[in-house]
Amino acid sequence: MLALFLAFSLALSGCNSKSEKSSGNKKEEKKLEIFSWWTGAGEEDGLLALLELFKEKYPDIEVENAAVAGGAGTNAKAVLATRMQGNNPPSTFQVHGGQELNASWVAAGKMEPLNDLYEQEGWMDKFPKDLIDMVSVDGNIYSVPVNIHRSNVLWYNKKIFEENNLQVPTTFDEFFDVAEKLKAKGITPLALGDKEPWTATHIFENVLLAKLGPDGYNALWSGELSFDDPKVKESVEIFGKMLSYVNEDHSSRNWQDASQLVAKGEAAMNIMGDWAKGYFVNDMKLKVNEDFGYVPTPETDGYFMVVTDTFGLPKGVKNADDVKKFLSVLGSVEGQDVFNPLKGSIPARIDADMSKYDQYGKDTMEDFKNSKLAPSLAHGSAAPEGVLTRVNQAVNIFVTQKDVKQFIDALKTAAQDL
Question: Disulfide check for 342: which of 46, 90, 171, 355 has CB 3.0–4.6 Å away?
Answer without folding.
Answer: 46
